[in-house]
């Protein structure tokens, strides 16, 4: 079963690689606008609960399936339970969904690239909020600009996957992710001192639970899965590289804490600026592109060059964070085409570029297609696939095998003590909660 397989060298390497896939546009672009569309602080509370109670067990499950099978998303479950085509079908969905996500993910990657180029020209210095908002609306409503940027972003990412030069970009992301972290903290200081920012802070810290309904819970869970790259086989694939000695629970908790912190900090950097600029918090996918440049514009009042430099580094770091996530999305498809159809890496990349690029053009030109695809993937398919994974670990795999992976065959005393709780979450709490959220919101 195990064969000769590349492994991650250390716990830090595991957490960094998984955090690299997890941290991306989901934290910086998607989280703030989800918070804005679904009730502010109450959504954040739901998101925290979803991550601790449901995403963590799903994360542990995916790493368990990957490490036990030593296979990628498509074949992992059929390797552990051969001869049952249903698990092959689930594996196939776990390949298709990331490719659908990749199509519109690269559209946002393209917007970030566009704003990076504008930062090079110091475009945001001393702009008023309405000028900032109109930059985004002009860019996104132009017919060719977002399409060219989307194809450029996807082209660079696919080129990196095709030429196996991921190591370079991964090294780069080791610098750019901490830089982004640092910049977000700097931006929080600027953002909260903007006139009118206090309303944004209140919005983030004062939950109004009357706003919470079943739909909010579904969106919070979908966001948590999306952000941790769950429910689409990416973590199963990473799990297949995790060393036998590694502690799955600690790696999962480490990644989740990292990812949560990043998203919440992004919320605190962006929401006060949204209120200060008088933008509607439920403005949708354009939210960060309409609000963040306003922070840079106010930074530039005294020393314009600082504002231009910070906005350049910020968008560069976002483009790199998005690229590391995008690369892991493309890689799922490349591994599948290689395993199943023996297609070379380069041919697979060309095919995926045409398919995802084409669908991305439609998303770029038709906001309704973009919204429907994001809704369908994040709030329906991720939940359906996560449900299948926990059912597989809870009911198809032998309990002893799951125990062996989670406790490292008894070598991790804390995990031995926690095992029954974790297993109960995997076998009962997670499937029932995910099914109830799915059925009540989207099927009934
Ligand atoms: N988790 C990434 C983000 O938050 O931007 C998105 C993502 C990347 C999802 C890679 C899935 C994946 F395989």
Describe this structure in words.
This protein is mainly alpha-helical. It is built from 18 helices and no strands. It has helices at residues 11-22, 25-37, 41-69, 73-80, 85-120, 129-141, 145-162, 166-192, 198-205, 214-227, 234-239, 248-276, 287-299, 304-341, 345-365, 367-396, 399-407, 413-443. The radius of gyration is 21 Å and the shape is globular. The mean pLDDT is 90. The structure holds 4-fluoro-L-phenylalanine. 4-fluoro-L-phenylalanine is lined by residues 21-22, 24-27, 98, 226-227, 229, 232, 234, 325, 328-329.
SSE layout:
Blueprint: H1 11-22, H2 25-37, H3 41-69, H4 73-80, H5 85-120, H6 129-141, H7 145-162, H8 166-192, H9 198-205, H10 214-227, H11 234-239, H12 248-276, H13 287-299, H14 304-341, H15 345-365, H16 367-396, H17 399-407, H18 413-443
Helix pairs in contact: 1-12, 2-10, 2-12, 3-4, 3-10, 3-12, 3-16, 3-17, 3-18, 4-5, 5-7, 5-14, 5-15, 5-16, 6-13, 7-14, 7-15, 8-12, 8-14, 9-12, 10-16, 10-18, 12-13, 13-14, 14-15, 15-16, 16-18, 17-18
The protein binds 4-fluoro-L-phenylalanine.
């Amino acid at each position: 079963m195990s064969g000769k397989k590349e492994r991650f060298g250390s716990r830090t390497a595991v957490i960094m690689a998984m955090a690299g896939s997890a941290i991306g546009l989901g934290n910086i672009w998607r989280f703030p606008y989800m918070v804005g569309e679904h009730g502010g602080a109450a959504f954040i509370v739901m998101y925290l609960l979803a991550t601790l109670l449901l995403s963590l067990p799903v994360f542990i499950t995916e790493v368990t399936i990957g490490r036990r099978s030593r296979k990628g998303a498509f074949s992992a479950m059929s390797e552990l339970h051969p001869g049952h085509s249903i698990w092959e079908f689930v594996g196939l969905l776990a390949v298709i969904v990331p490719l659908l996500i990749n199509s519109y993910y690269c559209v946002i990657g393209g917007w970030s690239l566009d704003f990076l180029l504008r930062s090079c020209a110091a475009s945001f210095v001393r702009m008023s909020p309405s000028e900032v908002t109109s930059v985004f609306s002009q860019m996104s409503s132009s017919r060719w600009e977002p399409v060219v940027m989307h194809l450029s972003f996807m082209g660079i990412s696919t080129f990196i996957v095709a030429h196996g030069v991921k190591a370079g970009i991964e090294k780069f992301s080791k610098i750019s992710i901490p830089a982004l972290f640092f910049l977000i903290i700097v931006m929080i200081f600027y953002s909260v001192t903007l006139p009118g920012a206090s309303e944004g802070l209140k919005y983030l810290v004062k939950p109004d639970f009357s706003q919470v309904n079943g739909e909010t819970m579904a969106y919070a869970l979908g966001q948590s899965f999306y952000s941790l790259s769950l429910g689409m086989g990416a973590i199963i694939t990473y799990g297949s590289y995790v060393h036998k000695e590694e502690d799955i629970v600690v790696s999962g908790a480490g990644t989740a804490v990292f990812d949560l912190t990043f998203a919440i900090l992004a919320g605190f950097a962006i929401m006060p600026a949204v209120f200060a600029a008088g933008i509607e918090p439920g403005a949708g996918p354009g939210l960060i592109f309409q609000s963040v440049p306003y922070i840079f514009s106010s930074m530039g009042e005294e020393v314009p060059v600082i504002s231009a430099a910070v906005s350049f580094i910020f968008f560069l770091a976002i483009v790199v964070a998005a690229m590391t996530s995008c690369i892991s999305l493309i890689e799922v498809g490349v591994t599948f085409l290689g395993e199943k159809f023996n297609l070379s890496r380069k041919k697979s990349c060309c095919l995926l570029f045409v398919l995802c690029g084409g669908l991305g053009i439609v998303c770029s030109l038709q906001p309704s297609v973009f919204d429907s695809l994001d809704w369908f993937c994040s709030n329906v398919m991720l939940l359906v696939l996560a449900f299948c994974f926990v059912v597989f670990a809870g009911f198809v795999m032998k309990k002893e095998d799951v125990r062996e992976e989670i406790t490292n065959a008894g070598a991790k005393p804390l995990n031995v003590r926690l095992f029954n709780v974790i297993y109960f979450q995997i076998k009962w709490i997670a499937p029932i909660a995910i099914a109830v959220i799915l059925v009540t919101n989207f099927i009934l």
